[in-house]
Fold each of these.
Amino acid sequence: MTVNDIPALNACLNALATTLIISGLVAIKMGKEKAHRFFMIASLVASAIFLVGYVTHKYLKNWENTPFSGEGLAAWVYYIMLITHVLLAMAIVPLVLRTAYLGIKYRREQHKKWARFTYPIWLYVSITGVLVYQFLYVWYPPAT
């Protein structure tokens, strides 16, 4: 594995987190609390591993950003998505930790209130994380 493989691994971790977050929601809607707990803890782990990979990649690349080579409408879509992704990604860490804490402590009513707010943001950040990768490395790869 090289430093250039990390973004693809991170995209896979974001896709996994997305799948696990949705699975957790489905499980709790079906009344399967143990399955919900499993999926949500697994999504938290996948997201934490992503964060380590992201910071490691940035460090190994001397904190440089990967340039976006798209133009026109693609650039507008990409940058709007990127800005919202980055801002919400910064906010989601304490939201997820607080929501998880309330769930682990069996404070169900508070957990549900926080989860209604946290869930869509976490899902958006995970999905747009995959899309950022697709824009940067698949659909509009950097010139070599």
Amino acid sequence: MNLNIQNKLALVTGAGQSIGREIAISLAKEGVKVILAGRTLEKLENVNKELEIPGYLYAADLMEENAVADMIKHIQSQYGQPDILVHNLGGSFGVPALASTAEWQKVWYFNVGIAHEINLAFIPSMIEKTWGRIVHLSTLSTKTYNGYAPYVSAKCAVDGYVKSVNREVSKHNVIVSAVAPGAIYTEGRHFSKLQRENPEAIQNYFKEHLPINRLGQASDIGPAVAYLCSDQASFLAGSIIGIDGGGM
């Protein structure tokens, strides 16, 4: 299938590893020029070597003061206005439910605020061109409510953001959507440790929650995101696509 996104310019945040890496690879296979944004230049360089079309690299910690504004200025001055935005940043920082408001706000900014700042900068040019695709990363936890409360709440906000912002911009063929991964194998994270250290526990998890009987892989996410960035996804406006193996 021709996704008809050759020569488009995409920004992918968190592109240095795992899901972000696979998204960048999938987009480059479709002829997209990708701006790889992440904290570690070496990781971005490694990903760039895997792309069919080498991209641009931007290494920075977007949680630092003025970092998002600096990245936006750099992109606009050096590469122009992106046609595609993929917001792959997210995480809990291990912040528990009974943490301070400031700690909750930190988690919210990481999962929602950074993406909103980027969208504010680039959506106007998408509207002017009457073409744009914006994909956010949600999570299965917005249905199960498992996990750290600030993180789950922030991802629920992502879902609401996708649905409501899409109502404002989809009439201009600027399509906002999201994918919601389930249990994905990521080295060093909970499920990878469980699979290695306690095979019986992971089998019990499969039996109770994941009938497909395997963990997802980052490579399961990339092609779906590429599709959401395509012309063919225009009627998926506001959709939040679960990529979770049927897990609950």
Amino acid sequence: MDLDLIQVSLLAILQGLTEFLPISSSGHLLLPSLLLGWADQGLGFDVAVHVGTLLAVLAYFRSDIRRLLVAWFLSLGSGNSSNDSKLVWLVIIATLPAGIAGLLFSDVLEQYARSVLIVAVTSIVFALLLLWSDRVGKQRRELFDLNWKQALFIGIGQMLALIPGTSRSGITMTAALFCNLNRQAAARFSFLLAIPIILASGLLKSIEVLNSDSGLAVAEDWLILVYAAGVSALVAFSCIHFFLRLIESIGFLPFVIYRIVLGSLLLAVYFV
């Protein structure tokens, strides 16, 4: 790996900070190589930090996940559904569009969408869309009020997160707010949606690493990758905790302002 310990630490912190905040982790991870000339961190590093964020969300929602899965499996056997088993089905429905789109278009987007201009434009456009949804959404629905059509709408929105700079959590929260979920419910559904998406993405990237010539190099760097995963997990866990505690009081405006400022600076870098 052509990164020193400080670079690895900063990238792992960046992944942990941005994975669950509505500001785009993929867009931010592109910036050090595009703007500072850092070596590309490689697929092995991407897998490691995504494993870290996956562990964070699994740890934070461990009791919820256990309860939901038990209810879902019981419903499969008895045919009697509950709010918990229904929520699992809604997560599955909302995951399918992005999963299919990822399989079909991820290689094309990886090749053609990794640019400062695209990250800048998507940062601004989807920031304004998030602000709009936060203003016009009635925010009167709880998580269990969600229906399958709304879950599918959120899932279709999640497809756009394949474009760097969009933010998976940002676009899913935006779609959920348009469905009149309150901020807390929108955030929790977005975080639950992260589990299958990060898991599927991590598995695909792991297979790609194992089938590539970089597999041996990844094995040699296993200690630094474990360190990166641990750092991203700790930071991501903290982000989830404080975001859920503060989102009702602070709203999404600070993240909208940050994204617009970031996008504007990137546009200036691109055109100057």
